[in-house]
Write a structure and sequence with these properties.
773 residues; alpha/beta; Alpha-Beta Plaits; DHBP synthase; Nucleotidyltransferase, domain 5; 11-stranded mixed beta sheet; 7-stranded mixed beta sheet; 33% helix
């Protein structure tokens, strides 16, 4: 008889791992124990040597479905044991060890639990918080590790005898399922309107209000949604009015795939994402029979849709015939999600007509994840619920460096690199808002707590000196007594793309709205040669003046004037603006003349190479969108109009050399756009052709750079790569030239993965120099 000790790291807590170990060990007649040891699962076995070896293989093959084993280390402890253990047992957790395992993300209600919720003979019938080891909340309820009930917000609800029996039975699927509860002992849901209302079925009463066109605030797993039916344009428009979100598309939830197919196209790969246990919002194209209210996703060819992921959601659809319900985050623009009942009631006064709340504390905010497919390949627009805090494997890059990376300023996430794992946080948002900034600081402390990160070797941040995250980096550098490492925005984009594809060198097309360049100007259409911690800029879009600086991002007609200034006589340009675009100028003719003078006198101008600004300008010039009211609006509407067009028009592109660097002449493309518009060519065809010209120009620049450097891979990163037309045009051109085109697969093309790229750049730098001096 021999004894072995096995240490398992990965996603092995809160997933039924210990009872699985117990069942395998008992079936193989092995003695010993299993327990959580800090962030690791420890298994001690006594028995025949071959049986212990077989146990390790059986565990890998028969692990719980939502677990992930990153490492399994087997150590022979004693070859002459006398049988200390009479049986195999599950012991209580110990905190006397640290490691890089974490709990899994929040997961959708499993089919078995859902059957209980809908079975009128089950004691959990109609109970919205039903969960087991295979499903339910994890990250949103955990306070610290090891992941045991007393370290979660479920500790507020002592188990009843029936739940206790399940919780303590290793053969039961609820053995140590920390979210275990029932109507007798668990959280309860209630309706609030001026006061808590005494109704028999709060969910049914809430649905009656929704069906009547009312707006409800519904507290869920990781935050709160504002809910209204999708078939009533007046109700949706009223929600827009109250929120001040007049154009931004709303995501909706539908009860099942069959219903979604009545208004949207669903490809096989999109179906797989929709029904996965992670339940993200999936951006789908509207179909020819689309019948939801026009105000759900105005002037777009697509919309975000998700399936129910909690018992509460399933019960909402039990009582309504609506094909979908708007489910939009219940927070004011730029502010953090509301998670406390008092805040929900106070801050949504005048927005929500009524509140469907519950009394379980949300420990960690976690917004819905959003994905989109381009040419059948998935990309994250927002990686959050269902995925966080599962880490990326950086062990091939660094195993011993602790990095805290804080991201950019808008659409922020932060990342912690520890022991070869990179933990990217849930979506934080816009840190220019003070409440969101404070929320981020709390989230940093909490993720450090549950990853057992006690020290930091370096804090990584954006290069922009005025970002709140950059200033926070300095503060945290002092707190941890470590250096701060600044990473240029597009270098971080490229680095994230590299690690997502497990390469260290590529030509990256970095195309987005804006990023602070190393020369102090606003970049956003760059051709970068990235080689680990180094990058070189090989090309870009032609730098453009921005009349009024950031005003051009809100009113892109100013960008149109700026780009056309060198191609039109000043008086002719002013006349064109007054004749065709006066409604796009907030102050009318006076503003047109002011912008013209600014351009003539080079007053109050900044420069940019932004692809986003160019696409916005094309959108504005075509009369598609004259004012940006939400991030990416003008470019998104341009894509939607172009989606309806044909490829009957070709707009040529021209690459020039300026200051020794190749640049794409985007003003020339815009001039061609206007000429085609004045010839009364179909706007949809022009929109498609203009996007194609910009895309081909960027792709051509990248291929030329690859030829100069001998690099094998060309990739695309930045928010522009959410545009399917742009992504596929560039991909096809690059691959036609014999190069492999890389896109984000398990990370965000936009700013949501910049912090991950910062962490990678810091690790590469440390690998090369051994310090950050």
């Amino acid at each position: 008889m021999e004894r072995a000790r096995i240490l398992v790291q990965g996603i092995v807590q809160g997933v039924g791992f210990r009872p699985t170990v117990y069942r395998i060990a008992k079936s193989m007649e092995l003695a010993g124990y299993v327990r959580n040891l800090g962030n690791i699962v420890e298994i001690v076995l006594e028995g025949d040597k071959n049986s212990i070896k077989d146990f390790a293989e059986n565990l890998k093959l028969n692990k719980p479905p939502i677990s992930v084993i990153n490492s399994l280390e087997l150590e022979w402890v004693d070859s002459n044991v006398s049988g200390e253990f009479a049986d195999f047992n599950i012991l209580s957790s110990s905190e006397n060890f640290s490691g890089s395992s974490v709990i899994p993300a929040d997961l959708a209600t499993c089919d078995t639990c859902l059957e209980e919720v809908l079975n009128d003979n089950n004691r959990r019938y109609k109970y919205p918080f039903t969960a087991c080891t295979d499903c339910g909340p994890r990250f949103t309820v955990i306070e610290s590790v090891p992941y045991d009930r007393e370290r979660t917000s479920m500790d507020d609800f002592p188990l009843c005898p029936d739940c206790t029996a399940e919780y303590e039975d290793p053969e039961d699927r609820r053995y140590h399922a920390e979210a275990t509860c029932c109507p007798e002992c668990g959280p309860e849901v209630f309706i609030y309107k001026d006061q808590r209302l005494d109704v028999e079925n709060p969910i049914k009463e809430a649905v009656k209000l929704i069906d009547d066109g009312k707006i409800l605030a519904v507290k869920g797993i990781g935050g709160t949604h504002l809910v209204v039916k999708t078939t009533d344009d007046d109700a949706v428009s009223e929600l827009r009015k109250r929120l001040g979100r007049f154009n931004q598309p709303f995501a909706c939830m539908s009860p099942d795939l069959e219903t979604i197919r009545t208004f949207a196209e669903v490809a096989d790969f999109e179906e797989k994402a929709l029904i996965s246990r992670r339940r993200p919002i999936v951006v789908l194209n509207k179909n020819d029979n689309y019948y939801l209210a026009p105000s759900v996703a105005p002037e777009l060819h697509n919309l975000g849709v998700m399936l129910p992921y909690s018992g509460l959601h399933h019960l909402l659809f039990k009582y309504t015939q609506e094909p979908g319900l708007i489910m939009t985050s219940a927070n004011m623009p730029g502010e953090p999600m509301l998670i406390h009942n008092r805040d929900i009631i106070e801050k949504l006064e005048g927005v929500a007509d009524c509140y469907l709340l519950h009394d379980r504390r949300i420990v960690n905010r976690c917004d819905d994840s959003v994905v989109r497919f381009r040419g059948g390949e998935m990309a994250f627009i927002r990686r959050s619920r269902g995925y966080v805090p599962e880490p990326y494997d950086f062990s091939w890059l660094s195993k011993d460096l602790n990095v805290l990376a804080l991201g950019p300023e808008i659409d922020v996430t932060f990342s912690i690199l520890k022991e070869g794992n990179c933990y990217v946080s849930q979506y934080i948002g816009n840190t220019t808002k003070y409440e969101t900034f404070l929320s981020m600081k709390d989230a940093v402390d909490h993720l450090m707590e549950i990853t057992k990160t006690d020290s930091v070797d370096v804090v990584a941040s954006d290069l922009h000196p005025m970002f709140f995250t950059t200033k926070l980096a300095e503060e945290l550098g002092e707190r941890f007594g470590c250096p701060v490492f600044n990473v240029q925005h597009h270098h971080a984009h490229a680095a994230a793309l590299c690690v997502d594809n497990h390469v260290e060198e590529m030509i990256c097309i970095a195309a987005d709205g804006v990023g602070y360049g190393s020369d102090g100007t606003a970049w956003g259409g760059e051709i970068l040669h990235i080689n680990r911690d180094e990058y070189k800029r090989f090309g870009s879009l032609m730098p453009q003046k921005m009349a009024g600086g950031d005003l051009t991002t809100k009113y892109p007609i100013r960008m149109v004037m700026s780009m056309l200034h060198d191609h039109y006589d000043p008086e002719e340009l002013v006349e064109l603006m007054k004749r065709d675009y006066l409604d796009y100028f907030k102050h009318g003719e006076r503003e047109v003349e002011l912008v013209s003078k600014q351009l003539e006198r080079s007053f109050n101008l900044s420069k940019t190479t932004s692809t986003g600004r160019v696409l916005d300008a094309i959108s504005s010039a075509l009369g598609i969108c004259g004012e940006r009211t939400y991030e990416g609006e003008c470019s998104m509407k341009l894509e939607s109009v172009g989606h309806q067009g044909s490829d009957s028009i070709e707009i040529p592109y021209e690459i020039k050399k300026e200051d020794g660097m190749e640049v794409l002449d985007t003003p020339k493309i815009l001039v061609n756009v206007l000429e085609l518009k004045h010839k009364n060519k179909p706007i949809a065809d022009i929109a498609q052709a203009a996007q194609r010209a910009v895309s081909l120009g960027l792709a051509d620049l990248a291929v030329r750079s690859a030829e100069k450097t001998g690099v094998e891979f060309i990739g695309g990163s930045g928010g522009v790569f959410y545009n399917e037309a742009v992504s596929m045009t560039i991909k096809n051109f690059v691959e036609s030239k014999g190069y492999k085109f890389l896109q984000h697969r398990d990370s965000c093309a936009g700013d949501g993965s910049v912090s991950m790229g910062q962490a990678a750049a810091a690790a590469w730098h440390h690998n090369k120099f051994g310090s950050f001096e």
